[in-house]
TrEMBL record:
GO terms for molecular function: mRNA binding; structural constituent of ribosome. This is 39S ribosomal protein L13, mitochondrial. Keywords: Ribonucleoprotein, Ribosomal protein. InterPro entries: Ribosomal_uL13, Ribosomal_uL13_bac-type, Ribosomal_uL13_sf.
Length: 179
């Protein structure tokens, strides 16, 4: 009977688990550091740099990522077509408008620097702009990677009694005009 349980432990260690990560309001570069650990298998006790023991990671809400400060305007991504003079730079906000998955994909790819198998490891990364994930992938998910920071609740989505319960710092005069 004991051999059966040892065998099950071994199967759980060697199988590829599917993890879910919600990227809503998360920094893509900090998130990439966490995601790459699961893709490479660094969280498993059997990890070895030459062994391919990583898991699948499904990332949802890539459309709603957040960058610090004015990185949307200042960060530029390089792309080369392969032809002479084919190099271009695209600002982060432009790239995000064209393809909302690309910034997260590039951040995860870059975070695996030095990994010789990163092209094959990236095949286990599944990115979705919103929460719409195909049913066959949802059936595989068995774990959730916790978000790095809490998502703040918007004021227009809070219950009205909770909004009224907040303390007022000052009251505007009755003759105050908003320009």
């Amino acid at each position: 009977m004991r051999n059966i349980f040892e065998r099950v432990k071994q199967w759980n260690t060697l199988t590829r688990i599917w993890h879910l990560y919600d990227a809503k309001w998360q920094d893509p570069f900090d998130s990439a550091k966490v995601i790459q650990k699961y893709l490479k298998g660094l969280h498993k006790p059997i990890y070895h740099p030459l062994a391919d023991c990583g898991d699948h990671v499904v990332v949802i809400n890539c459309k709603e990522i957040a960058m610090r400060g004015d990185e949307w305007r200042k960060r530029a991504y390089f792309h080369h077509t392969g032809y002479a003079g084919g190099g271009t730079y695209t600002l982060a906000w432009e790239l995000h408008d064209k393809n909302p998955l690309m910034i997260m994909k590039k951040a995860v790819y870059r975070s695996m620097k030095g990994n010789l198998q990163r092209r094959y490891t990236m095949e286990r990364l599944h990115l979705y702009a919103e929460e719409n994930v195909p049913q066959d992938i949802i059936e595989n998910i068995s774990s959730v990677i916790p978000q790095l920071r809490d998502v703040p609740m918007r004021l227009d989505r809070m219950p009205e009694d909770q909004v009224k319960g907040y303390p007022k710092i000052w009251d505007l005069p009755k003759d105050y005009v908003v320009r």
